[in-house]
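User: Can you write out an input/output pair for a complex, sequences first and structure second?

Assistant: Here is one pair. Inputs:
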Amino acid sequence: MRTLVAAIVDATLNALKEQGALKLQARPEYVVEPPKNPTHGDLSCNVAMVMAKAEGLPPRKIAEAIVAGLVDHDGVVAKVEVAGPGFLNLTLRDLVVQRLGLRALQAGEGWGRRPRASTGKRVLVEFVSANPTGPIHIGHARGAFLGDGVARLLEAAGHDVTREFYINDFGKQVETLGRTVHKRYQQLFGIEAPLAEGEYPAQYVVDIAQKLKDRDGDRWLRAAADQWLPVCMQLAIDENMAAIKVSLAHAHIRHDVFSSEAALHQGGKVLGVARHYQARGVTYDADRAQGTEEKVRREDSKAAQFADRQLGGTFLITSRHGDDEDRIILRRDGTPVYLTADLAYHKDKFDRGFDRIIDVFGADHSGHVPRIKAGVELLGVDLKKLEFLLVQMVRITRDGQEVKVSKRKGTVFELDDLIEEAGADPCRFIFLSKTANAQLDFDLALVEKQSKDNPVFYFQYGHARCASILRFAADKGQPFAGVAAITDAHVARLVLPEEKSILKRLSALPDVVSGAAEALEPHRVLYFCQELIAELHSYYTKYRSDPVVSDDREKTQARLYLIAALKQTLKSAFAILGIDAPESMSRATDDDE
RNA sequence: GCGCCCAUAGCUCAGCUGGAUAGAGCACCGGCCUUCUAAGCCGGGGGUCGGAGGUUCGAGUCCUCCUGGGCGCGCCA
């Protein structure tokens, strides 16, 4: 609908230019959109106001010229008028509006989507990337659902998407995990081996130790640490990753590639990237970072706290590329730090030839962004290809009271428990309903409620109601004949303002999807559905005495076409969001708890 | 101290990259089921869009400053 009108506006502008009425040096950045106020027509266009300055003419004057010279060969526009400061308010011919549902039905499952991998753009979305030191918990949930939602959106927008999980299976934390496993393993043989501060007290480590005992018996009891440690670490990582994959599957979250940090080290990629920087001359050896001299730090900041541990090493000149200070990439003994591996990982991503690389980070990692950007820029690659989606913190509440989650206090809330309690769809719905860059309150009581208060059911009921109407029609001997059987005579029967409004709205799905994909904002698709469903329910209730299925077979087919197009739109949108579209929902009981 | 994010109805949040009269859900009040699902609909109250300047035809949206909140500022990962 929008593109139809935009084409007319463009043609009109070109015609006016040829007549000499407009200079039209550049194509103006105008929008065509449905106005909030329905008395302003079907579509509204701000082109005259946008052009006013460049043309040196008052907006209304330009608008009037466009109206007078409108190029509309196909007779799409029924009426156009100038309003307010220079808006063009367009009313479309009825039949144009009434046909708007046809595309949805013709496209079927592909409605709202561009063909798979049709843009030729390869996009990598990295998300979750939890440490393999334990189960995935509720703190990961937002980034997990959002990353998955963004990946689905980009796929729907026609990109070739790879979903990737970066496993931090290297370094101190997994080492500590390995040591904890060994202690639990010793305990299984009755040997006293108390856990130290910072080790992992939870039951799953005991289970891993039991697996080790079952598999290898007592062979690691008296072995040297350099013998048992790699074994314990590897088993723990494998077991934890397996559990994480199961949890993600329960949440209907999928990854294509699991990328290992340890593998980067073993493959020489980490030291390789350090040498790459050295060869480019963007490093120096020193005792301390540059860029910090004039910087005043609060005494209790971590930087100050660890200042005495600065020992010298090889630094990357990130401060010249937007970072606060230069960052160390090799310690004095030549071993790489976490950032070095992360940069090696990013280099690896770029080397794999992606056109767009998206990192979904929690807000607690926002401090890494400037140094990664600087490091990536110093690789000599195009920084514009790298985007960060920063997901703000989630405050967990139950009935308004904050639920404190702490690993140390053993009050972790595993994703699996949440999914089991509340279901994947309600959780996904909450996390996809807000923008990533605002904090979010997650009400456990609400999401666990299997009643009408749970907002996801409003959505699913909308789809189920469409399905129900189509079923009812079939039962009454008037099944929807299919889009091929729908003629202009049929669609012309959709004369109610509510019917036209639904058709206009649902026809916007492709625009909504591409806009949401560009902005990496799945919630836009969700709110689009909300508005569509509200219109459906309102229409349904208002015309209960003049229902969809009646003795007037032509009108019945026309309305079934409307309902079918709406159902397809919701189904397609839900698929993009990753939410189930049920054909029916059991009626809620009043005393549902 | 510095950096990033946020502030819109009592609560949780939208507001489509600057458009016309700021919306939804929950909560509250009042209505609507012998009919294709009442997990629904209709109506009502409720707002100096945190504050102050600025940019322009036009600002919840962009810029500056201020206030308040979250996160971060390690040769941990």
